[in-house]
């Protein structure tokens, strides 16, 4: 069976390509694939009839339950005959219909036949789903692919695809739930031991939704009439004989296990009956013959749903017989519409007049098909319909179902007649018995009473498929025993009411035959009365339809999507950030508030939290907060930068008050340098921030969110500190530092305990300095500036005080600044050296010392520009950076010399005449390296940014400079 | 911190940390090659750089990949290496292998020379004279290769990190180069730079949240190791609020990286602005890596708290799937559309995480591999469709592409169908694997939402296919530039998408074996 599917796939891929030069031969060869299906199915007849299903298995992805399992039983056999037989005939018909059949279309048709074969044979829910979606895809291409330039065709294709794939996915969800509940995805195993439970009930509803959409059941039917824009062979095959029957087939497969479960039977029967009646009613009014047939198909599929889902033996017999019959009569009706369309250029009933006389044989064949449809003996349609009526003659709720079935059949008879007369006859506006009779006679005469000049010759390949299919419906009706034998093994699994019913042409006089006759009479009556009912139809058609529902859903989706996009994807960074922050506030934030309320976290009011230790903290706090608020408020960039600096200095103050002079010192110097560098950058930006484009509400919102985030972080910090369970590591470090004879714990950590880390950090600093220089200077494509290249400026006010005064970077030259710089430089440098030496025991250290020394030179730069800076320290910054790193490394290597490890520190002690006894830990040299490197870093940054400032900023076309 | 504690415990000699170089070799190779790349930039002459960098990067990734396979092959008892910092186990090796292969494919796109994607000189202002000059000088920006290698190294480290600090370092190592790379597009540079700034700022914020969460968890458990946190949580040691808030804040950082709603907003902007090869790298490797880290954190660290975090993860998964799928419908730019599709896929993947089972883990692993290849292939096709202004990313420009170059349009259509999860593509297999795991894990409603979101998603994928095949081509439409490297990338993506769709079992086996021992602790 896998071979059969693969054969289709091969033919679909190879034949259109290999035989693309002769499209006719290509199509005939392609028809061999479905023909092979028929032949193969025919060979298995015996086995199936004996109730020995043939199974095959191939592991595909067993981990996921994806095992290719195939199984041929009665229902599969019936549908296989239909799929293969109609497929082969439709392909042959295509040769005439298209003239030059398009290779893509033929390939996809064959692929469809293969997918359908796979679907029918699949014995695994997932495999069935895979083939199910493949048929949908084929249908999509076949509807839209022949004339994609027409918008209506594209829309129809999309609608069909969306409806069937969408609900196909819903069905997949149902399959998964069902499979998980059953512990297997093998259909035969599930049927043998059907699972129970609420989940299964839900799953079955989901599965039914998929089946209803595929079989175009009301209210999911609107895609089928729209799909009639497809070429006629496609409509005949996909939308009458094969694909749309898949939903019914699935219901038939699952009914033996689930007919009694949950909403299965009520849902299937109600939806089926509604479709039967609504479809029949709509078919009565269509002018486009293909749409008429489409509604007729909806109606007949509804009938099939009722039969296949009812879950009784008789109904199942009737259902499968009707499944075959439906394919055999609906396909030729479609094909004949194709002939009409082709020969007379229209398929609208109102525009076709007396065409039956011109193609009499086609008309007669169609009449046979209609006869089977309305259930005239001895056609297969009659056999099936008799069984169907019999199935619901047992009273109870069945009476309502029976009434529905009869009503539906009345419509079937009426639109069957209408189809015949609209297609081949004359007047359809006011049908009369006499008119119908005249038309029939004229067709008969044209066919058998000599040559009628009006006759149009139809090629055999156009006519024969129609005739063959119609006659097959007749022939199949003559051998009801065969179908009985084939279907019985399946139907016997369902409960039988009364004695075992058998498909047969004659059951004696009884209710079924009477009801059948009644439908013929009433149907004919309805047809002749129909002109008077037209106003009713017009009134009813104002009711909302499935098609409108589809469009409403689609429009709603678009509207939602647009709205969502407009609101969420505004492209504004503040909004994005606000969303992230809000989420944080919403989830952990609320949990924090709730925990505080419930008391599951340490309360903030236990006295361990106090507003301040010292009133100065309050003052500094107020300064910090107000500076922060104002920084967000002011319009000038420089003011904002200065206010941010104020925040930083305030924090430094807090450190001091809290007893962390070391931290405060470092923080202070870093703050200062950051501020200076920030000012450099600001020079190249406009003075003020761009005008605010956000609304006041948005800004207030941002403010609220920011305050909340601040509050959240603060509270959490407090809670986290109060929840401490572990001993702090600080005292341990203090002990360690004492062992090293150092009183400054921070410095001991930096240069001794974790010296390797510090070495890494200063390497990163060095790399960062090089990186900044490279980034800023590459854009300028110029040699790194040297002090002697800077041109001598005219006399400046600070000239007497400075060594080599140049252009100060900010504003005009200032004497005061020049004096201050000159006087303070030595002092600051001495202080920095003091910090370096004191580091071991007092606040200080190489890092702070280097930064302080850096500020001295920055001050000189601020007073006298690049020239002055170069004169004040005529050493290249890179030499300092490299030198500092080298000193640190040499100190580390010194540890080896002393017989220890890398960076192991020892204490050098010696006595000098004046100094007396000197104790010098080697850590000092390491600190010296840090000092030199940090100084070099500050210089490098200043020089890089400074030299970029001294050049005119590049003009940018279009943008702000 | 742990080292400090160690000193206190044993003053005197500090033992050198024990590092299993052999087991960490893939990461070390990639980082080593990245450093070598920097040296090449510094020492090699300009004309030589490209010629050295590209083979170097390829060789590095390939060697790391081979080493990963050898590690997985030898099946040594998996354990945590490098003093408990990095886990070497089945899922990690699978993820690392996937990242390396995907990085190799992305490298094909990045190294493409016939259609330059990257600006000649990142520091030249857009529209300035300097830019003109550097372009006319034909300079190629070869720093991209070491940057990419650093990012890939970070990605390898991210899912392997067994403690939160290592994970944070990995997060930064992978993110920082990406921020830079995003801003290097050759065309529409302002858009590209805006994308980089947005990504950087938002990424920095979410990293800060990650760090804050890690700090809270440290406060709770007294350790940043995932196994210790799990053990503490298992004992119910009190301080639940700290723990849960820590998890939440940590998740912000992780979910941001994989673009789950509501932390997804950077994705469309960044995917659109970044050079397309970088977008491909982010959409595949970063996603795999971020999911790997998420899986490790949730499966190892917070496994005992499953009942606490699962509801929130349900919510995130649902809105991610729905928002990603619904908003994608209105997109008119292919790259933005693919970005939203990536968001929706993140949602689908989260259903696998929610499953918290071996099956969920293996399903997610498989899905990641499958999706990674498909998405790289799709972005590779995007780079091929070009007009005078560079890539023709607007959907309307793709009208009728199916007529002009049916093969490329067909391949792209196939990728889209795979993303939609049509059977016989890897997308179906992957989606099926995570969904069935989620159903087993009792998350049926989530799967139903997932299926509905897939249906909506299918809608916009099909829309693109319709535009390509069923509309008339524009007169001055874009042309398709086929060059060997990009074509190879497309072919690889296509092959994997087909093979994982038609014959998924070997890779499923692989993912299943990888997941069989779960993550080490």
Automatic annotation (TrEMBL), chain A:
Residues passing through the membrane, by range: 76-97, 104-122, 128-148, 160-182, 194-213, 264-285, 292-312, 318-340, 361-379, 399-417, 461-483, 503-529, 575-596, 616-634, 641-657, 663-682, 703-723, 762-780, 815-837, 843-863, 875-898, 918-941
Statement: the UniProt record of this protein carries the keyword Transit peptide: no
Subcellular location: Cell membrane; Membrane
Domain Na+/H+ antiporter MnhB subunit-related protein: 817-939
Main localization of the protein described in the UniProt heading: membrane
Source superkingdom: Bacteria
UniProt membrane topology term: Multi-pass membrane protein
Residue ranges annotated for the NADH:quinone oxidoreductase/Mrp antiporter transmembrane domain, each copy included: 122-407
Domain MrpA C-terminal/MbhD: 623-687
GO CC aspect terms: plasma membrane
Positions of the MrpA C-terminal/MbhE domain: 699-785
Keywords: Cell membrane, Membrane, Transmembrane, Transmembrane helix, Transport
Short name of one Pfam family: MbhD
PANTHER family: NA(+)/H(+) ANTIPORTER SUBUNIT, NA(+)_H(+) ANTIPORTER SUBUNIT A
Cross-referenced NCBIfam families: PRK12644.1
Protein name: Multisubunit sodium/proton antiporter, MrpA subunit /multisubunit sodium/proton antiporter, MrpB subunit
Source organism per UniProt: Thermomonospora echinospora
TrEMBL record, chain B:
Ranges of residues in domain NADH:quinone oxidoreductase/Mrp antiporter transmembrane: 161-456
Reactions catalysed, as given in the entry: a quinone + NADH + 5 H(+)(in) = a quinol + NAD(+) + 4 H(+)(out)
One annotated GO molecular function: NADH dehydrogenase (ubiquinone) activity
Keyword terms of this UniProt record: Cell membrane, Membrane, NAD, Quinone, Translocase, Transmembrane, Transmembrane helix, Transport
Topology in the lipid bilayer: Multi-pass membrane protein
One GO term describing the cellular component: endomembrane system
Compartments where located: Cell membrane; Endomembrane system; Membrane
Bilayer-crossing regions: 24-44, 56-73, 93-111, 144-161, 167-185, 197-221, 241-266, 278-299, 311-330, 337-358, 364-385, 406-426, 446-470, 482-503
Broadest EC class assigned to this enzyme: translocase
Enzyme Commission code(s) on record: 7.1.1.-
GO biological-process terms attached to the record: ATP synthesis coupled electron transport
Domain of life, per lineage: Bacteria
Keyword Secreted: no
Location (main, coarse): membrane
Subunit structure: NDH-1 is composed of 14 different subunits. Subunits NuoA, H, J, K, L, M, N constitute the membrane sector of the complex.
HAMAP family membership: NDH1_NuoN_1 (MF_00445)
Sequence similarity: Belongs to the complex I subunit 2 family.
Protein function: NDH-1 shuttles electrons from NADH, via FMN and iron-sulfur (Fe-S) centers, to quinones in the respiratory chain. The immediate electron acceptor for the enzyme in this species is believed to be a menaquinone. Couples the redox reaction to proton translocation (for every two electrons transferred, four hydrogen ions are translocated across the cytoplasmic membrane), and thus conserves the redox energy in a proton gradient.
The protein, known as: NADH-quinone oxidoreductase subunit N
